[in-house]
Design a protein that fits this description.
single chain; mainly alpha; globular
Length: 106
């Protein structure tokens, strides 16, 4: 079994289970899929801003509902990259952090 950070244990606490369940009841559809025009049932309560072990952010940070695929792959890739690669209907990246959307200095 691999290393697990201490904050991983917080996800097993009844307090988190209740908070997670309430989030999924409030928003039962994956937020990332919805942006792409897909309706997918959500199964994970995800911290919008990664808490990275910050206990206050873990308990008080804003959540979004995601499907397992988006949480386990797309969200992790976006965090590692620093921006999402989703493309809007106009053919341009929708994430303001995407390099395409950055103001270029001349």
């Amino acid at each position: 079994m691999g290393y697990r950070s201490p904050h991983h244990e917080w996800t097993w606490l009844p307090r988190w289970r209740k908070k997670s369940k309430a989030q999924l009841a409030r928003e039962p559809v994956c937020a990332m899929c919805l942006v792409q025009g897909r309706v997918t049932p959500a199964s994970v309560a995800d911290h919008i801003t990664p808490h990275r072990g910050d206990e206050k952010l873990f308990w008080e940070g804003a959540l979004q509902s995601l499907c397992k695929y988006c949480h386990d792959s797309r969200k992790k890739q976006d965090e590692a990259r620093g921006y999402a690669t989703d493309i809007g209907l106009d053919g341009y990246p929708i994430d303001p952090r995407h390099p395409f959307n950055q103001v270029r200095q001349t």
